[in-house]
């Protein structure tokens, strides 16, 4: 079953068109990744889905419902979770409070479930989020995004700016989550993305130029070289 369907969207910042005729699908239970160089339109795609930048043309359907013109909070109520590129944890609140706010909206998952995936967060439960390391803040942002009835998690550059060991922790956690969550993730770390994803799309200058199984792209270094690698 298709969970999310993006159908031919054009998204702009003022006069400047960031997405051109972008279409993609995420099926129930899949991990789908969007790859592409800086400025390709990856974040804009997620912002279009969560409602922070509505497309000017085209439509977005989530669980069979047209959400193209719904408010972000309505999309979150419908089961979308969002982990922004800059994490945006609430710095003056504790770790536990950061989790409690979405958890109180309902949903099957509990704060204990999040601590089971990220044991470190439990130890830091009463610390203010602003005092966490970058990796810990990322774990908190992911945990927060999963709570409150999330069925599809939108994950923007989970590995960005993290030390290799922390990227490994995040990779392990995402592997655990794969079984119970549908994920649309943006990544610059191609290896991490292809390791986790079932399918992938490549964006170049706001246009989808490739889509295929992750294993297929893994075996096509020339495509990675052409569209993603930075030399
Ligand atoms: N707030 C904004 N105002 C104007 N232009 C923007 C804004 N945000 C992004 N853009 C432009 O839209 C295009 C797509 O940006 P986007 O942030 O989606 O790229 P990205 O693929 O996420 O890049 P990165 O890998 O650097 O995060 C770029 O040309 C960018 O300069
Ligand atoms: Mg981005």
From TrEMBL:
UniProt keyword annotation of Cytoplasm present: no
Keyword entries, A-Z: Amino-acid transport, ATP-binding, Nucleotide-binding, Transport
Matches recorded under CDD domains: ABC_TM1139_LivF_branched
SMART domains for this protein: AAA
Pfam family, one: ABC_tran
Domain ABC transporter stretches: 4-230
Example of a GO biological process term: amino acid transport
Molecular-function annotations in GO: ATP binding
Family from the record: Belongs to the ABC transporter superfamily.
PANTHER family: ABC TRANSPORTER ATP-BINDING PROTEIN, HIGH-AFFINITY BRANCHED-CHAIN AMINO ACID TRANSPORT ATP-BINDING PROTEIN LIVF
Name the record gives this protein: ABC transporter ATP-binding protein
